[in-house]
Automatic annotation (TrEMBL):
It comes from the Bacteria. The keyword Transcription regulation does not apply. SUPFAM superfamilies: Bacterial exopeptidase dimerisation domain, Zn-dependent exopeptidases. Keywords: Hydrolase, Metal-binding, Zinc. Pfam families: M20_dimer, Peptidase_M20. CDD domains: M20_yscS_like. Residues 202-337 form the Peptidase M20 dimerisation domain. This is Acetylornithine deacetylase/Succinyl-diaminopimelate desuccinylase. The keyword Transcription does not apply. PANTHER family: ACETYLORNITHINE DEACETYLASE (PTHR43808), PEPTIDASE M20 DIMERISATION DOMAIN-CONTAINING PROTEIN (PTHR43808:SF8). Gene3D superfamilies: 1.10.150.900, 3.30.70.360, Zn peptidases (3.40.630.10).
Length: 442
Protein backbone atom coordinates (compact mmCIF):
# COMPACT_ATOMS: atom_id res chain seq x y z
CA UNK A 1 0.00 0.00 0.00
CA UNK A 2 1.15 3.50 -0.70
CA UNK A 3 1.51 6.25 1.85
CA UNK A 4 -1.61 8.07 0.65
CA UNK A 5 -3.81 5.09 1.54
CA UNK A 6 -6.91 5.82 3.57
CA UNK A 7 -6.66 5.50 7.37
CA UNK A 8 -8.23 2.64 9.28
CA UNK A 9 -11.82 1.73 8.66
CA UNK A 10 -14.02 2.73 11.58
CA UNK A 11 -14.63 -0.90 12.44
CA UNK A 12 -11.01 -1.45 13.54
CA UNK A 13 -11.25 1.44 16.00
CA UNK A 14 -14.56 0.11 17.30
CA UNK A 15 -13.35 -3.44 17.53
CA UNK A 16 -10.18 -2.67 19.45
CA UNK A 17 -12.13 -1.99 22.64
CA UNK A 18 -13.88 -5.38 22.53
CA UNK A 19 -10.66 -7.19 21.69
CA UNK A 20 -8.80 -5.53 24.53
CA UNK A 21 -11.67 -6.19 26.91
CA UNK A 22 -11.75 -9.88 26.00
CA UNK A 23 -8.00 -10.15 26.55
CA UNK A 24 -8.22 -8.38 29.92
CA UNK A 25 -10.87 -10.87 31.03
CA UNK A 26 -8.47 -13.76 30.47
CA UNK A 27 -6.35 -13.87 33.61
CA UNK A 28 -2.81 -14.40 32.31
CA UNK A 29 -1.04 -13.71 35.60
CA UNK A 30 2.59 -14.74 35.36
CA UNK A 31 3.62 -15.94 38.79
CA UNK A 32 6.99 -17.16 37.57
CA UNK A 33 5.75 -20.70 38.26
CA UNK A 34 4.57 -22.94 35.41
CA UNK A 35 1.87 -24.62 37.51
CA UNK A 36 0.02 -21.36 38.08
CA UNK A 37 0.57 -19.46 34.82
CA UNK A 38 -1.94 -21.39 32.68
CA UNK A 39 -3.92 -18.38 31.43
CA UNK A 40 -1.42 -17.72 28.67
CA UNK A 41 -2.68 -20.73 26.74
CA UNK A 42 -6.25 -19.40 26.71
CA UNK A 43 -5.08 -15.98 25.62
CA UNK A 44 -2.96 -17.52 22.86
CA UNK A 45 -5.92 -19.55 21.63
CA UNK A 46 -8.06 -16.42 21.64
CA UNK A 47 -5.50 -14.52 19.54
CA UNK A 48 -5.05 -17.43 17.10
CA UNK A 49 -8.83 -17.73 16.75
CA UNK A 50 -9.27 -14.00 16.07
CA UNK A 51 -6.61 -14.22 13.37
CA UNK A 52 -8.05 -17.45 11.90
CA UNK A 53 -11.50 -15.83 11.66
CA UNK A 54 -10.12 -13.42 9.07
CA UNK A 55 -7.95 -15.96 7.27
CA UNK A 56 -4.58 -15.48 8.96
CA UNK A 57 -2.82 -18.73 9.84
CA UNK A 58 -1.32 -18.44 13.26
CA UNK A 59 0.71 -21.12 14.97
CA UNK A 60 0.79 -21.71 18.70
CA UNK A 61 4.22 -22.64 20.05
CA UNK A 62 4.25 -24.01 23.57
CA UNK A 63 7.48 -23.88 25.50
CA UNK A 64 5.98 -25.83 28.43
CA UNK A 65 2.40 -26.94 29.14
CA UNK A 66 0.29 -23.79 29.27
CA UNK A 67 3.12 -21.47 28.27
CA UNK A 68 1.93 -20.54 24.80
CA UNK A 69 3.20 -18.14 22.13
CA UNK A 70 1.43 -17.21 18.90
CA UNK A 71 3.27 -16.35 15.68
CA UNK A 72 1.86 -15.42 12.26
CA UNK A 73 3.23 -13.84 9.11
CA UNK A 74 1.29 -11.42 6.90
CA UNK A 75 2.92 -11.49 3.47
CA UNK A 76 3.84 -8.11 2.00
CA UNK A 77 3.31 -6.90 -1.55
CA UNK A 78 7.04 -6.26 -2.02
CA UNK A 79 8.62 -9.61 -1.17
CA UNK A 80 12.19 -8.39 -1.73
CA UNK A 81 12.01 -6.15 1.32
CA UNK A 82 13.07 -7.03 4.86
CA UNK A 83 10.32 -8.08 7.22
CA UNK A 84 9.08 -6.16 10.25
CA UNK A 85 8.43 -7.90 13.55
CA UNK A 86 5.51 -6.66 15.67
CA UNK A 87 5.59 -8.21 19.13
CA UNK A 88 3.49 -8.00 22.28
CA UNK A 89 3.41 -10.15 25.40
CA UNK A 90 0.18 -11.74 26.63
CA UNK A 91 1.14 -12.30 30.28
CA UNK A 92 0.59 -9.80 33.09
CA UNK A 93 1.95 -9.29 36.59
CA UNK A 94 -0.26 -10.30 39.54
CA UNK A 95 -3.01 -7.98 40.80
CA UNK A 96 -4.70 -8.05 44.21
CA UNK A 97 -8.46 -7.41 43.75
CA UNK A 98 -8.68 -5.97 47.29
CA UNK A 99 -6.48 -3.06 46.29
CA UNK A 100 -8.36 -2.18 43.10
CA UNK A 101 -11.42 0.04 42.49
CA UNK A 102 -12.72 -2.57 39.99
CA UNK A 103 -11.91 -6.27 39.70
CA UNK A 104 -8.59 -6.43 37.80
CA UNK A 105 -9.86 -9.11 35.43
CA UNK A 106 -13.37 -7.78 34.83
CA UNK A 107 -12.52 -5.56 31.84
CA UNK A 108 -14.80 -2.86 33.16
CA UNK A 109 -15.42 0.37 31.22
CA UNK A 110 -15.73 3.40 33.46
CA UNK A 111 -15.11 7.15 33.03
CA UNK A 112 -13.84 6.75 29.48
CA UNK A 113 -11.28 4.12 30.44
CA UNK A 114 -11.01 0.38 30.05
CA UNK A 115 -9.76 -0.99 33.37
CA UNK A 116 -7.78 -4.12 34.10
CA UNK A 117 -4.41 -5.69 34.71
CA UNK A 118 -2.64 -5.52 31.36
CA UNK A 119 -4.60 -2.49 30.08
CA UNK A 120 -1.36 -0.66 29.27
CA UNK A 121 1.14 -3.50 29.79
CA UNK A 122 0.36 -4.63 27.23
CA UNK A 123 -2.92 -6.09 26.10
CA UNK A 124 -3.80 -2.66 24.71
CA UNK A 125 -1.14 -3.07 22.05
CA UNK A 126 -2.01 -6.74 21.45
CA UNK A 127 -5.59 -5.65 20.79
CA UNK A 128 -4.50 -2.79 18.51
CA UNK A 129 -2.43 -5.15 16.39
CA UNK A 130 -5.31 -7.62 16.15
CA UNK A 131 -7.77 -4.85 15.26
CA UNK A 132 -5.54 -3.46 12.51
CA UNK A 133 -4.78 -6.85 10.96
CA UNK A 134 -8.42 -7.94 11.11
CA UNK A 135 -9.42 -4.67 9.46
CA UNK A 136 -6.89 -5.26 6.69
CA UNK A 137 -8.00 -8.82 6.08
CA UNK A 138 -11.63 -7.78 5.80
CA UNK A 139 -10.88 -5.06 3.28
CA UNK A 140 -8.06 -6.65 1.27
CA UNK A 141 -5.27 -4.38 2.51
CA UNK A 142 -1.75 -5.77 2.49
CA UNK A 143 1.40 -4.24 3.94
CA UNK A 144 4.39 -3.46 1.70
CA UNK A 145 6.77 -5.72 3.59
CA UNK A 146 6.15 -8.99 5.43
CA UNK A 147 4.85 -8.30 8.91
CA UNK A 148 5.56 -11.03 11.46
CA UNK A 149 3.26 -10.98 14.49
CA UNK A 150 4.47 -12.50 17.76
CA UNK A 151 2.31 -12.66 20.87
CA UNK A 152 4.49 -13.98 23.64
CA UNK A 153 4.33 -15.64 27.04
CA UNK A 154 6.48 -14.99 30.08
CA UNK A 155 7.75 -11.46 29.46
CA UNK A 156 7.06 -10.54 33.07
CA UNK A 157 9.35 -13.27 34.42
CA UNK A 158 12.34 -13.04 32.10
CA UNK A 159 10.91 -14.36 28.77
CA UNK A 160 12.50 -17.83 29.01
CA UNK A 161 9.17 -19.46 28.09
CA UNK A 162 8.35 -16.70 25.61
CA UNK A 163 10.61 -14.56 23.44
CA UNK A 164 13.86 -16.33 24.39
CA UNK A 165 12.25 -19.71 23.66
CA UNK A 166 11.05 -18.48 20.25
CA UNK A 167 14.36 -16.94 19.22
CA UNK A 168 16.37 -19.96 20.38
CA UNK A 169 14.10 -22.77 19.22
CA UNK A 170 12.11 -21.28 16.35
CA UNK A 171 14.51 -18.85 14.82
CA UNK A 172 13.17 -19.47 11.31
CA UNK A 173 9.87 -17.81 12.21
CA UNK A 174 11.74 -14.50 12.13
CA UNK A 175 13.52 -15.03 8.82
CA UNK A 176 14.09 -11.72 7.08
CA UNK A 177 13.10 -9.59 10.08
CA UNK A 178 15.52 -6.68 10.47
CA UNK A 179 13.41 -4.28 12.54
CA UNK A 180 10.82 -4.65 15.27
CA UNK A 181 8.29 -2.67 17.25
CA UNK A 182 6.89 -3.55 20.68
CA UNK A 183 6.62 -1.99 24.14
CA UNK A 184 7.44 0.53 25.84
CA UNK A 185 7.13 3.63 23.70
CA UNK A 186 4.94 5.73 21.44
CA UNK A 187 2.99 7.19 24.38
CA UNK A 188 2.39 10.89 24.79
CA UNK A 189 3.64 13.31 27.39
CA UNK A 190 1.80 16.64 27.31
CA UNK A 191 3.92 19.78 27.21
CA UNK A 192 0.86 22.04 26.95
CA UNK A 193 -2.53 22.07 25.18
CA UNK A 194 -0.91 22.16 21.75
CA UNK A 195 2.19 20.04 22.07
CA UNK A 196 2.92 16.49 23.08
CA UNK A 197 6.18 14.59 23.18
CA UNK A 198 5.82 11.01 21.99
CA UNK A 199 8.54 8.93 23.57
CA UNK A 200 9.83 6.28 21.18
CA UNK A 201 12.07 3.71 22.81
CA UNK A 202 15.40 3.37 21.00
CA UNK A 203 17.41 2.01 23.91
CA UNK A 204 16.98 -0.01 27.05
CA UNK A 205 19.25 -0.60 29.98
CA UNK A 206 20.93 -3.92 30.61
CA UNK A 207 19.83 -6.30 33.34
CA UNK A 208 22.61 -7.20 35.76
CA UNK A 209 21.04 -9.05 38.67
CA UNK A 210 23.57 -10.34 41.09
CA UNK A 211 23.90 -12.17 44.36
CA UNK A 212 26.44 -11.23 46.99
CA UNK A 213 27.87 -14.02 49.11
CA UNK A 214 29.54 -13.29 52.43
CA UNK A 215 31.32 -15.98 54.38
CA UNK A 216 32.34 -15.93 58.05
CA UNK A 217 33.04 -18.18 60.98
CA UNK A 218 29.90 -19.79 62.40
CA UNK A 219 29.56 -19.51 66.14
CA UNK A 220 27.52 -18.92 69.28
CA UNK A 221 25.62 -15.65 69.43
CA UNK A 222 26.61 -15.03 73.06
CA UNK A 223 30.37 -14.89 72.54
CA UNK A 224 32.95 -12.41 71.27
CA UNK A 225 33.03 -12.88 67.49
CA UNK A 226 34.88 -10.80 64.89
CA UNK A 227 34.12 -12.73 61.69
CA UNK A 228 30.37 -12.43 61.24
CA UNK A 229 29.00 -13.05 57.71
CA UNK A 230 25.83 -11.04 58.43
CA UNK A 231 27.82 -7.98 59.49
CA UNK A 232 30.08 -8.19 56.45
CA UNK A 233 27.16 -8.60 54.09
CA UNK A 234 25.16 -5.79 55.69
CA UNK A 235 28.06 -3.38 55.29
CA UNK A 236 28.46 -4.27 51.60
CA UNK A 237 24.72 -3.98 50.92
CA UNK A 238 24.56 -0.59 52.64
CA UNK A 239 27.53 0.70 50.64
CA UNK A 240 25.87 -0.34 47.36
CA UNK A 241 22.44 0.93 48.37
CA UNK A 242 23.77 4.38 49.24
CA UNK A 243 26.13 4.69 46.30
CA UNK A 244 25.34 7.02 43.42
CA UNK A 245 27.08 5.96 40.25
CA UNK A 246 28.48 8.71 38.04
CA UNK A 247 26.39 10.32 35.31
CA UNK A 248 27.19 8.87 31.88
CA UNK A 249 25.48 10.53 28.96
CA UNK A 250 24.55 8.15 26.14
CA UNK A 251 23.59 9.21 22.62
CA UNK A 252 19.93 8.41 23.29
CA UNK A 253 19.65 10.45 26.47
CA UNK A 254 21.55 13.32 24.89
CA UNK A 255 19.14 13.30 21.91
CA UNK A 256 16.15 13.10 24.24
CA UNK A 257 17.32 16.05 26.33
CA UNK A 258 18.12 18.13 23.25
CA UNK A 259 14.54 17.65 22.01
CA UNK A 260 13.08 18.35 25.44
CA UNK A 261 15.18 21.48 25.78
CA UNK A 262 13.92 22.61 22.38
CA UNK A 263 10.25 21.92 22.94
CA UNK A 264 10.13 23.13 26.53
CA UNK A 265 12.39 26.06 25.84
CA UNK A 266 14.67 25.28 28.79
CA UNK A 267 18.45 25.24 29.12
CA UNK A 268 19.84 21.84 30.08
CA UNK A 269 23.22 21.76 31.77
CA UNK A 270 25.05 18.70 30.37
CA UNK A 271 26.96 18.35 33.64
CA UNK A 272 23.75 18.31 35.63
CA UNK A 273 20.98 16.78 33.49
CA UNK A 274 19.04 15.70 36.58
CA UNK A 275 17.85 19.19 37.47
CA UNK A 276 16.12 19.39 34.08
CA UNK A 277 14.84 15.83 34.29
CA UNK A 278 13.24 16.53 37.67
CA UNK A 279 11.00 19.08 35.94
CA UNK A 280 9.46 16.36 33.77
CA UNK A 281 7.07 15.30 36.53
CA UNK A 282 5.63 11.80 36.19
CA UNK A 283 8.19 10.54 33.65
CA UNK A 284 11.15 11.84 35.66
CA UNK A 285 11.54 8.50 37.45
CA UNK A 286 11.95 6.65 34.13
CA UNK A 287 14.26 9.18 32.50
CA UNK A 288 16.19 9.84 35.71
CA UNK A 289 17.28 6.20 35.82
CA UNK A 290 18.83 6.44 32.36
CA UNK A 291 21.69 8.84 33.11
CA UNK A 292 23.62 6.42 35.31
CA UNK A 293 24.00 2.77 36.27
CA UNK A 294 21.78 1.83 39.20
CA UNK A 295 21.95 -0.83 41.91
CA UNK A 296 19.11 -1.50 44.32
CA UNK A 297 19.35 -4.19 47.03
CA UNK A 298 16.17 -6.30 46.88
CA UNK A 299 16.65 -9.46 48.98
CA UNK A 300 18.56 -10.61 52.04
CA UNK A 301 19.02 -14.13 53.41
CA UNK A 302 21.00 -15.40 56.37
CA UNK A 303 20.72 -17.45 59.52
CA UNK A 304 18.42 -20.12 60.90
CA UNK A 305 18.32 -19.50 64.66
CA UNK A 306 18.31 -16.42 66.88
CA UNK A 307 21.43 -17.37 68.85
CA UNK A 308 23.53 -18.93 66.07
CA UNK A 309 25.94 -16.84 63.98
CA UNK A 310 25.61 -18.25 60.46
CA UNK A 311 28.63 -19.04 58.30
CA UNK A 312 27.04 -17.51 55.19
CA UNK A 313 24.82 -14.61 54.19
CA UNK A 314 23.51 -13.60 50.76
CA UNK A 315 21.87 -10.57 49.21
CA UNK A 316 20.37 -9.91 45.79
CA UNK A 317 21.02 -6.63 44.03
CA UNK A 318 18.96 -5.44 41.05
CA UNK A 319 21.50 -3.60 38.91
CA UNK A 320 20.78 -1.94 35.58
CA UNK A 321 23.60 -0.90 33.31
CA UNK A 322 23.71 1.72 30.60
CA UNK A 323 24.70 0.64 27.06
CA UNK A 324 28.38 -0.35 27.09
CA UNK A 325 28.62 0.00 30.88
CA UNK A 326 28.09 -3.55 32.16
CA UNK A 327 31.81 -4.30 32.69
CA UNK A 328 32.38 -0.93 34.26
CA UNK A 329 29.45 -1.50 36.60
CA UNK A 330 30.94 -4.85 37.63
CA UNK A 331 34.24 -3.14 38.38
CA UNK A 332 32.49 -0.43 40.42
CA UNK A 333 30.57 -3.03 42.41
CA UNK A 334 33.68 -5.08 43.17
CA UNK A 335 35.30 -1.96 44.52
CA UNK A 336 32.26 -1.22 46.68
CA UNK A 337 31.92 -4.69 48.21
CA UNK A 338 35.63 -5.34 48.79
CA UNK A 339 37.68 -8.50 48.27
CA UNK A 340 35.91 -10.79 50.78
CA UNK A 341 32.45 -10.75 49.25
CA UNK A 342 31.83 -12.95 46.21
CA UNK A 343 29.66 -11.67 43.36
CA UNK A 344 27.57 -14.11 41.34
CA UNK A 345 25.47 -13.02 38.36
CA UNK A 346 21.99 -14.53 38.37
CA UNK A 347 20.85 -12.67 35.24
CA UNK A 348 22.88 -10.69 32.78
CA UNK A 349 21.31 -9.32 29.62
CA UNK A 350 22.98 -6.58 27.64
CA UNK A 351 21.63 -3.08 27.18
CA UNK A 352 20.30 -2.14 23.74
CA UNK A 353 20.69 1.05 21.80
CA UNK A 354 19.86 2.02 18.24
CA UNK A 355 19.82 5.35 16.46
CA UNK A 356 16.76 7.53 15.96
CA UNK A 357 16.95 7.69 12.20
CA UNK A 358 16.11 5.82 9.01
CA UNK A 359 12.93 5.11 7.14
CA UNK A 360 11.16 3.34 9.98
CA UNK A 361 11.59 6.32 12.29
CA UNK A 362 10.32 8.65 9.56
CA UNK A 363 7.22 6.47 9.15
CA UNK A 364 6.55 6.36 12.89
CA UNK A 365 6.88 10.11 13.13
CA UNK A 366 4.65 10.72 10.09
CA UNK A 367 1.96 8.42 11.42
CA UNK A 368 1.97 10.19 14.80
CA UNK A 369 1.87 13.66 13.27
CA UNK A 370 -0.93 12.69 10.89
CA UNK A 371 -3.14 11.76 13.85
CA UNK A 372 -1.85 14.42 16.23
CA UNK A 373 -0.54 17.61 14.60
CA UNK A 374 0.97 18.57 17.97
CA UNK A 375 3.14 15.44 18.10
CA UNK A 376 6.89 15.72 18.74
CA UNK A 377 8.43 12.25 18.46
CA UNK A 378 11.55 11.88 20.64
CA UNK A 379 13.90 8.95 21.26
CA UNK A 380 14.32 7.75 24.83
CA UNK A 381 15.90 4.98 26.86
CA UNK A 382 13.79 2.62 28.95
CA UNK A 383 15.25 1.88 32.37
CA UNK A 384 13.69 -1.60 32.39
CA UNK A 385 13.90 -4.54 29.98
CA UNK A 386 11.47 -6.01 27.44
CA UNK A 387 11.22 -8.88 24.94
CA UNK A 388 13.41 -6.71 22.70
CA UNK A 389 16.34 -8.20 24.64
CA UNK A 390 15.60 -11.57 23.04
CA UNK A 391 14.72 -10.35 19.55
CA UNK A 392 17.80 -8.16 19.34
CA UNK A 393 19.86 -11.35 19.70
CA UNK A 394 18.75 -12.14 16.13
CA UNK A 395 20.28 -8.89 14.94
CA UNK A 396 16.89 -7.16 14.84
CA UNK A 397 16.82 -3.42 15.44
CA UNK A 398 14.21 -2.96 18.15
CA UNK A 399 11.99 0.03 18.89
CA UNK A 400 9.38 0.60 21.56
CA UNK A 401 6.41 1.91 19.60
CA UNK A 402 2.95 1.10 20.92
CA UNK A 403 1.24 4.40 20.08
CA UNK A 404 -1.06 5.84 22.72
CA UNK A 405 -2.33 9.36 23.20
CA UNK A 406 -2.81 10.02 26.89
CA UNK A 407 -4.66 12.71 28.84
CA UNK A 408 -2.30 15.35 30.26
CA UNK A 409 -3.15 14.56 33.87
CA UNK A 410 -2.70 10.78 33.73
CA UNK A 411 0.33 9.46 35.63
CA UNK A 412 1.15 6.86 33.00
CA UNK A 413 4.35 5.45 34.47
CA UNK A 414 2.61 4.76 37.80
CA UNK A 415 0.09 2.51 36.02
CA UNK A 416 2.75 0.02 34.92
CA UNK A 417 2.34 -2.92 37.30
CA UNK A 418 0.28 -0.48 39.39
CA UNK A 419 -3.12 -0.48 41.03
CA UNK A 420 -6.12 0.53 38.86
CA UNK A 421 -4.21 0.04 35.60
CA UNK A 422 -6.40 1.42 32.82
CA UNK A 423 -6.26 2.70 29.28
CA UNK A 424 -8.27 5.62 27.85
CA UNK A 425 -10.69 4.39 25.19
CA UNK A 426 -9.91 7.28 22.85
CA UNK A 427 -6.19 6.63 23.37
CA UNK A 428 -6.68 3.03 22.32
CA UNK A 429 -8.51 4.14 19.18
CA UNK A 430 -5.84 6.73 18.46
CA UNK A 431 -3.29 3.92 18.71
CA UNK A 432 -5.15 1.85 16.13
CA UNK A 433 -5.21 4.73 13.66
CA UNK A 434 -1.49 5.46 14.10
CA UNK A 435 -0.50 1.81 13.93
CA UNK A 436 -2.62 1.20 10.86
CA UNK A 437 -1.07 4.16 9.05
CA UNK A 438 2.43 3.19 10.13
CA UNK A 439 2.16 -0.49 9.24
CA UNK A 440 0.67 0.24 5.82
CA UNK A 441 3.45 2.60 4.87
CA UNK A 442 6.58 1.24 6.52
ZN1 LIG B 1 5.20 -5.18 29.37
Amino acid sequence: MTSDAAPARPDATDEVVDLCRDLLRIDTTNTGDNDTSAGERRAAEYVAEKLAEVGVDAEIHESAPGRANVVARIPGTEPGRDALLVHGHLDVVPADPDEWSVHPFSGEIRDGYLWGRGAIDMKDFDAMVLAVVRGWQRTGVRPRRDVVLAFTADEEAGSDYGAHFLTQRHRDLFDGCTEAIGEVGGFSYSVDEQRRLYLIETAEKGIDWLRLHAKGRPGHGSMVHDDNAVTALAEAVARIGRHRFPVVMTDTVRAFLAEVSDVLGIEIDPDDPETAIAKLGPIANIIGATVRNTANPTRLAAGYKDNVIPGRATATIDCRSLPGQSEELERQLRELVGPDIAIEYVQRQPALETTFDGDLVVRMSEALRAEDPGAHPVPYMLSGGTDAKAFSQLGIRCFGFAPLRLPADLNFSALFHGIDERVPLDGLQFGVRVLDRFLRTC
